[in-house]
Amino acid sequence: MSVRVQPITRDEHLAFVAARRSASHTQVPSWGAVKPDWEAESLGWFDRTGQLVGAGLVLLRPLPGPRLPGLLRYLAYLPEGPLIDWHEPGLERLLEPMVAHLRRRGAFAVRMGPPVVVRRWSAETVKAAIADPAARRLRDVRATSYEPRAGQVADGLRRMGWRLSEAGGDSGFAAGQPRYVFQVPFAGRSLEEIHDGLNQQWRRNIKKADKAGVKVVRGDAEDLPAFHELYTETAERDGFLPRPLSYFQGMWSALTAEHPDRMRLYLAHHDGEVLAAATMLTVGEHVWYSYGASTSRRREVQPSSAVQWRMMTDAHELGAAVYDLRGITDTLEESSPLLGLLRFKVGTGGEAVEYLGEWDYPLNRMLYKAFQLYLSRR
Questions:
Q1: What whole-number distance in Å separates Cα of residue 118 and Cα of residue 79?
Q2: Where are the beta strands (DSSP E) in 201-358?
Q3: What's the CATH code of the domain at 367?
Q4: Neighbouring C-beta atoms of residue 33, cutoff 10 Å
Q5: N or C: which end of the chain has fewer CB within 10 A?
Q6: Looking only at Cα atoms, what is the longest distance across the chain?
Q7: 300-354, pLDDT tens digit by residue?
Q8: Is residue 130 part of a domain?
Q9: Helix (H, G, I), strand (E, B), or coil: what is residue 40?
Q10: Is 91 within the bounds of a domain?
């Protein structure tokens, strides 16, 4: 199959995404506006008949330093993309034209995250592994199911010269998009079945919040400062660097302009005070719990549980096939500060999912090594 890759319009890109059952929220045209430090370009894959058979959002990040006209060099990044047939025989026919285009664009390296699942672990399997002192890493635990074709994709990438990126390595919280995530399958399940799949603690907390009178409402752009106040408190409590309010305001403007339900905000009220809040993203049949925030005050009324259940309820009503709680840690050691978050997500009764990770294709090896060194020192 002869394929050409070239820029496409936002409308062409969005139409291609809309025709699919799901796509990553990082592969919709509006995501480029969420990342103002990157230059965004929509790419299309056309077969010999002129039919659009693939699409991808490329983010271009210039090398640090003086920006001289005509000499700019970029890292070209396709987070959780591109949207192509990853299991087509002769994958190089799809990737080589992309690399050639990005080379002409000035890329010194290409990084992508194939949306290809490798294996899955049930909640019961993960729970047992956490309780097993001999289990150190999720990757070393026998999976509940495997996707045999994923290995063929990885082998093909290596033959073409792609290499697994350190940024897309073993941790679900490395730089870049997570390799390990936790998802709750919704397809073919009633809301009652999803509720029954929650563990006892989750069900108890949801009931406690309801009995205490916690009310969860949908917010809008005017409620982002209230969300951000809780988010900043969460960052201080959990020891991570928070994003500024302007980031979420820009994210809201970009995503909701593309589709009114692309991003939602939920806030849990109790006795006139907002105690917890979260954002939810939707593309097709895939829904993500994106950012969560809460205060330490009155945690006994379980506002975060109330928010989660409301989002899951609404996701089910929207026809979601999967509710995605995003990244999890690969480590199962009790000393890991992220283990508590894994336990929380396991309580949904879903499954841990490993993707193929992020892969790099160096076009200028000297600049690529210099960029890796720069990242390691940040």
A1: 17
A2: 215-219, 263-270, 273-283, 286-294, 322-327, 351-355
A3: 3.40.630.30
A4: 15
A5: C
A6: 64
A7: 999 999 999 999 999 999 999 999 999 999 999 988 888 999 999 999 999 999 9
A8: no
A9: strand
A10: yes
